């Protein structure tokens, strides 16, 4: 689709700043609206006074829950919009001296104009995926609180007299028990929500058939890949997760080792590490690969990262193929026959 008008939107808790941008030779327009449905309707009215809404592309940053109402509004009216990473936009637009809502909205509009041939349109995830996303975020906060209480109580008991720490340790234990029960409840709710949606449940069953992929890893993959529709192949997913190695060379003077980029989803990367560690504990293709790399003299972390990438490749393969993961040669021969 050919876009003739680009609207960059900077979203905050109470307001949204919009900049209408057509080209570098034409003036841009700025207006602020409330971050609520009535403000969104005023935004469309403001745009229609200047341009036809048929060829408009809206560009906005990922701002979590603050952007969700606007995305729902665009989705209901079938308007074209693109959610972009703030880091991607910032590093693509050169030097920026000003920092305010209007400047950020202008930068987003200009980004959409410059990359209009490459930019990907966004789609609102299904209700099931949105519920899973919020539950995962809540679970992560619960785990963080639980770990903080556990460490504080252990350190207090180890370095202070019992008469000073006993009350705090006992009270902390009560909260830890309650948080543990809440985490278990969240896991049950995740399984219930996944089971209620046929498509999500089918993809979940395929993903968890791979050795080392459990509830948490599969749920995070479902959310961040939009039920595996956001990535064409496992290499792009590995790049997103931060497990893809990149070379470090320049001319004839710099010949560094290939290494992982720090730009990636750290939570997903950690979950894949847990899955890789679990996968190599039993005899299978992952442990065989890991042991072979160790025998070749590769560092353990390099070998483990290879297992992480193998997990991603197997998950993508089973989802695209539509059949469960084949764990051993006997199963493969049975399926082939």
Q: Name the CATH homologous superfamily of the largest domain.
A: Ribonuclease H-like superfamily/Ribonuclease H
- Residue ranges: pLDDT <50 for 5 or more in a row? 329-337
Q: Please count the beta strands (DSSP E, at least 2 residues each).
A: 7
User: What general outline do the C-alpha atoms trace?
Assistant: globular
Major sheet: arrangement of strands = 3-2-1-4-5
Structure annotation, total helices? 13
What count of structural domains?
3
The helix content is 55-70%
The average pLDDT is 91
Kindly provide the name of the CATH class of the largest domain.
Answer: Alpha Beta
How would you describe the overall organization of this protein?
With 337 residues, this protein is α/β, with parallel strands linked by helices. The chain has 3 domains: 5-114, 2-Layer Sandwich (Nucleotidyltransferase, domain 5), CATH 3.30.420; 127-196; 221-326, no CATH class. It contains 13 helices and 7 strands. It has helices at residues 37-48, 68-76, 86-92, 101-114, 127-159, 162-196, 198-208, 215-224, 234-241, 266-279, 285-295, 300-321, 329-336; strands at 5-11, 15-21, 29-34, 56-61, 81-84, 245-250, 254-260. Strands 3-2-1-4-5 form a 5-stranded mixed beta sheet. Strands 6-7 form a two-stranded antiparallel ribbon. Helix 8 runs antiparallel to helix 10. The longest helix is centred in the middle third of the chain and has 35 residues, at 162-196. It is globular and about 65 Å long. The two termini are 46 Å apart. 26% of the residues are buried. Mean pLDDT is 91; it is low at 329-337.
